Amino acid sequence: MNLAIPEALKPYAGRITDIDSHEHMPAQLWIEAFGEVARPIMEMTMEQQARNKNSSNVPGYVGDTAEISPQSLWFNKGPTAPGAVDLERRIEVMDMMAIDRQLLFPTSIGLWASVLYGAPKDGPLFKKFGAGTYDLAKRLFDAYAEWAVGVARDKRRIVPVAGIYGDTPEELTAMARRQIDRGFGAILMSSGRMPGDVSPAANALDPLYALLAEAKVPLNFHIGGELLFLGSSRWGQAEAFSGYKVSEETSLDPWRLSVLHLAPQNFVATMVTGGVFDRHPTLRVGVQEYTAHWIGPLARFLDLWHNNNHSIHDKQFSQGHSGKQLPMLPSEYINRNIRVSPFDFEPVDEYIEMYGLTDTYCFASDYPHVEGGKNPMGRFSSALERLGPATMEKFFVENGTWLLPVRSAAH
Fold this sequence. Notes:
By secondary structure, this protein is of the alpha/beta class. The chain has a single domain, classed as Metal-dependent hydrolases (TIM Barrel), CATH 3.20.20.140. Helices cover 37% and strands 8% of the residues. It has helices at 30-34, 39-46, 87-96, 109-117, 124-129, 133-154, 169-181, 206-215, 254-259, 262-273, 276-279, 295-307, 330-337, 348-355, 376-384, 389-398; strands spanning 16-22, 99-105, 158-163, 186-188, 219-222, 285-288, 338-340. Strands 1-2-3-4-5-6-7 form a 7-stranded parallel β-sheet. Helix 8 links the parallel strand 4 and strand 5 (219-222). Helix 7 (169-181) packs parallel to helix 8 and helix 12 (295-307) runs parallel beside helix 14 (348-355).
């Protein structure tokens, strides 16, 4: 088979891990696939003209028929890209991209579930769907999982991600256990919400974290629905930010792009400083499509606090009332437990030189979304090649296996 990868990556062909890809079913198929719960979102989507190739509104959609070839593979995007809908064809696409395994996030009603569940109450979605906005989100999560469970059972190289929600830690844990028992190999949770209405570092969440760690199921935070963390969408409602492109997942205005990482940054910083990874050393966490520029500075900043042993700060990052300082540096927990995907335009080689974290950064194609770029493997490999083959292998192969482990038959 002719591979759609640069020459520099051929030594890793067939072993590459991809921590962010998507199904991208057009809205015209949503009711057939997911049932009547999809109707209000489908109708809203079909009222909108296609803004770019990512648009889920595809009038006259004829099926997943686009050619799978090295010449066209990285240029076809959105619902009409090969393997966007037919996941048997996705395996062929992965073979041509030399990818072994990939996480599969939602684009259709599963993405809308995340967006609605994380929507501020003063925003346009609440104005449209009213007090039932969050309930609709939960029903969309459930309907998407009913569809995706078939993928979880039938595909070994494609690992679909199941969203979980809950008003208490017990509800979150019960839902995660159910999805794992159904065969899901990865869990998605909102980074903009307090999980189960408690801090991410609260001991009440330890049963959830222990469950995920024992099952080798990663907890993921993917772009979509993070504005609830800021409490309001009005921060960005200014004339200067109007008229910019809007993707399926977010607005591309300068304000949104400058703050979209804040919710997952807050969540993982709370976990690190609150000792979650000390209590659960094998807990796996992925952060996808929030950029990667923030994780290195966060690690350095947290290390500064950890190492500050002067006067009133001599117990910074201690574990609660015990006063026992975390035994590892925050950066060490981040490097061990957290994986982050950069966009292809980010200088990931410079990030590694400045901050280390060689185990943290991972390749992600974002296939078949436009944001994944037309040459992500080429751009990443060109940047990283000067750092040597060990760094290349970590980025393209080894680091992603933390989120894509081969799980035992018991799970």
